[in-house]
Amino acid sequence: MEIGTNSIVSMSYSVATAEGEQVDQSQDGHPMVYLHGHGQIIPGLEAALAGHKTGDAVEAEIAPENAYGAYDAALDLQVSRELFPDDVQKKLKPGFQFEAEHPTKEGEHVLFTVHQVEKDAVKVSGNHQLAGQTLLFKVRIVDVRPATQEELSHGHAHGPGGHHHH
Ligand code: ZN
Questions:
Q1: Residue numbers of the domain that contains 105
Q2: Residues 17, 32: one domain?
Q3: How far apart are CA 163 and CA 166, in angstroms?
Q4: d(CA 51, CA 59)
Q5: Does residue 26 sit within a domain?
Q6: I need a labelling partner for 23 at 20 to 30 A (CA). Which of 15, 59, 73, 140 fits?
Q7: What is the SS3 assignment for 34?
Q8: Which range (7-16, 87-96, 157-166) has the least confidence?
Q9: Model-level pTM?
Q10: Taking 70 as the threshold, does the pLDDT of residue 166 lie above it?
């Protein structure tokens, strides 16, 4: 069966930046499983996999716009610690995330991550770690099957590699 909307796809993969730095990979024997056509993986990879079938090897070079977005210098900020409410100030540490409006684009909300906390200042970034990167994916399609009604109503894959919450 070919990958299309509402397919459950199992795949092993590795991904590197254009400079050749390995970013991520599935573990041997533990393919990643996702529900195709619902934006659960980056748009460029979803498009590259459509129409492929079990056993296919797929290589895809994906531009930042179709991966984790362009790098936006306006989203790397140093802000005063006092701008955060008291209860949040206690929680500020690297990795802490919060949503806030884009500093220059009114109405656009961005997920920021705290990178560094100093006495009075906090360095935060709304750029994804892989923003601005062209990514090279090497994928092997392990299995393709139709989603069950239950999976469709939950909006994700079940079973090995999928969600386990039943
Ligand atoms: Zn579920």
A1: 73-125
A2: yes
A3: 9
A4: 14
A5: yes
A6: 73
A7: strand
A8: 157-166
A9: 0.81
A10: no
**Tens digits of residue pLDDT in 97-114:** 999 999 999 999 999 999
Compute the distance from residue 33 Cα to the ligand 1 centre, in Å. 13
Return the pLDDT at 161.
75
CA distance 25 to 141: 14
What CATH number does residue 54 fall under? 3.10.50.40
Q: Ligand 1 centroid vs 75 CA: distance in angstroms?
A: 34
* 3 state SS of 71: coil
Q: What's the CA-to-centroid distance between 62 and ligand 1, angstroms? A: 29
Ion ligand 1 — residues with CB under 5 Å?
154, 163
Q: What is the pLDDT of residues 54-83, one digit of tens each?
A: 999 999 999 999 999 999 999 999 999 999
Confidence of residue 159 (pLDDT cuts 50, 70, 90): confident
Q: What's the length of the chain?
A: 166
Q: Nearest 5 degrees, angle CA 95-CA 101-CA 107?
A: 150
Q: How far is the CA of 31 from the centre of ligand 1 (A)?
A: 18
CATH of the domain at 98: 2.40.10.330
* 100 and 140 inside one domain: no
